[in-house]
Amino acid sequence: MWYQGHTFESRLFTFNILDRVGGGDAFASGLIYAMMHHYKAMDMINFAVASSAIKHTIRGDANITDDVDTIRNLMNMSYDIKR
């Protein structure tokens, strides 16, 4: 992510993809949420990527995860996503 003259790269998430549909939308909505809540730049990109990663583990076009704490916890995980 390019933000305020700096490049930020998210941490790496490893997981099994159940469904690819909606991952980009989940990323964008996660980024918008993080920006609206004044996250630090590194946390913005990690939150957006974590939102997308969680969506990839849910079948269908809608991300039914609305629990921000779950996404924040995923940002700090040191292990694979478990569903």
What labels describe this entry?
disordered C terminus; 83 residues; mainly alpha; 45% helix
The profile of the biggest β sheet is: 2 strands, antiparallel
What percent of the residues sit in helical stretches (DSSP H or I)?
Answer: 40-55%
- Strands in their spatial order, largest beta sheet: 1-2
Cα-atom Rg, whole angstroms?
12 Å
Mean pLDDT: 81
Strand content: under 5%
**Unreliable segments (pLDDT under 50, ≥5 consecutive)?**
78-83
Would you write up a description of this structure?
By secondary structure, the chain is mainly α. The chain is built from three helices and two strands. It has a two-stranded antiparallel ribbon. Helix 1 packs antiparallel against helix 2 and helix 2 crosses helix 3. The longest helix is centred in the middle third of the chain and has 15 residues.
What's the topology here?
Layout: E1 2-3, E2 6-7, H1 23-36, H2 41-55, H3 68-75
Antiparallel strand pairs: 1-2
Summarize the structure.
The chain has 83 residues and is mainly α. Helices cover 45% and strands 5% of the residues. The longest helix has 15 residues, at 41-55.
